Amino acid sequence: MRPAPDRPRRDRPARRLRRAAGIAACAAGLLAAGCGGQAIDPEKASIAVEYDVEDATGARVDHVTCPSGVEVEAGNRFECRVTTVGGEVAIAELEVLNERADVRLIRLRKG
User: Fold this and answer.
1) Spatial distance between the Cα atoms of 14 and 82, rounded to a whole number of angstroms
2) Angstrom distance (rounded) from CA 101 to CA 46
3) Contact 103, 40 (CB under 8 A)
4) Average pLDDT, integer, range 61-69
5) What is the pTM for the complete model shown?
6) Residue 36 has pLDDT above 80, yes or no
7) How far apart are CA 88 and CA 71, in angstroms?
8) How far apart are CA 65 and CA 67, in angstroms?
9) pLDDT at position 110, please?
10) Distance from the CA of 44 to the CA of which of 1, 15, 64, 99 falls in 20 to 30 A?
11) Strand, helix or coil at 63?
């Protein structure tokens, strides 16, 4: 048998995104004051999701879009759309953990 040639490993963001399904990560300080109550700050949530996805999967994230108006109430869930540099799309599902607006990434699935 011949030894395998030395080849650089190809980046496989799709595989990494699939592996990340089920990861749990927390981000703090996503609170934004709004009219009539407190809501998750979508810009801060996007930054946290980008960091968590890149850290968990190794895939480079191009941008993340999170919804506005998500109330800070334990148990509330919301989804952010993640697009990698390679153009792959995934959906990150997050859950609000407490009144301090800590969130947990509970699932990452192909979008």
Assistant:
1) 12
2) 14
3) yes
4) 96
5) 0.71
6) no
7) 29
8) 7
9) 92
10) 15
11) strand
